Amino acid sequence: MHKIFTLNSWDEFMKHVPEMFKNYIFRGHQNSNWKLESSYDRSNLKKVGVTEQSLLGSFRFTVSTLGLTNLPNSRLGWLALMQHQGVPTRLLDFSFSPFIAAYFAFEPCFTSFYYHNDPDEMVSIWAVNYLSLQHQFDLEHMSVLKDAAERAYESHYFNDDEYEVIMNNQNKFDTSCFLCSPILGNNRLVNQQGVFLSHNSNEQSLFQILTIAKYNNDNFSDLVYQINIPKSETYTALKYLFNMNIRPSILFPGLDGIAKEVSLKDLLKTSLLSSSFPQKLNKIKIPFELAERIKVVHQ
User: Of 12, 86, 150, 154, whose CB is crowded by the most CB atoms within 10 A?
Assistant: First the structure.
C-alpha cells in the first residue's frame, strides 16, 4: 500500500514536502511509472536464477586479483561497492534530503528532454517513513539485536556488523525492510546524504515486502508516498537546486561530476531554455514523393 501525492509545481514541492515529510527518506525517479525496485529485482540475472550471493562472490574474487587497497571487509561494504560500480544488488539508494532526491528525478529529464520527454508526464520522489520501519523491526527483533536497536535510534540505520547478523539469521527474523549503511562509506554516499533501503528476503522484492500484510494496515497508512511533479517543472527545479549547491560536482566528487556539471551549467544558462520547458518536437512530415531522396548516414 502506498499513497500518491500529486503536486502542480516545484513551488508546491518546496512549500509542502520538507514540512510534511520530516521522518522520511527519499528517492527520485524520472518516470512516475517506475516502482521501488532494486537493481537486482529489475535485472534479468534474478529471472534466470543468479543469486546476489553468487554475484558477490564473483565480484570479490575478481577485484581481489587487481591488487587494490582499502577494500571492504564486510558483506554490506562489498554490496555498497558493487552498487556503486553498477553490479545488481538488493540495496536501493535513498537520501535523507528530499531536494537531493529531486535532483536525481529531474536531471535525467533535463539532459534528454529534447527527444524523449512529454511535458505532461510526471517525475516521482518516493518517500518512506524510516521511523515506522525501524519501530516495527525493533518490536519484532529486539531480543536478537538489542544493542543494535538502541544504537540505530540515533543513526536510524544498521551498520556492517548488524547487517551481517540480520542476513545470517534470516530464520529468526520476519521478512522486513530496514535502513543500512556501511561504516566505511564513500564521498558520494556522504555528499548525497545517502542511505540504503534493504530487506532480508531471498524470494520477495523490496516493493512486494513494502506492500505485504504487515505494512498494509492503518498503522502504516503513511509509510510510503509517491510524490509526483510535472516534468514541465524541470528547468525551475534544477535552477533552484543548483543555487542550493546540489550539483554534479558535489554529488559525484571527481572528474565525472565536474564534466557533467560543465555541460549542465551551460544548458541552464542558455536563454533559449530559461523561459519554459521545451515542448515535444514534432516529427517532420516528408511528402511520399520526396522520401526516396533522403539517405541515412551511419557514422
Answer: 12
* pTM, two decimal places: 0.82
Residue 298 confidence class, pLDDT cut points 50, 70, 90: very low
pLDDT band at 272 (very low <50, low <70, confident <90, very high): very low
**C-alpha cell at position 102:** 529531486
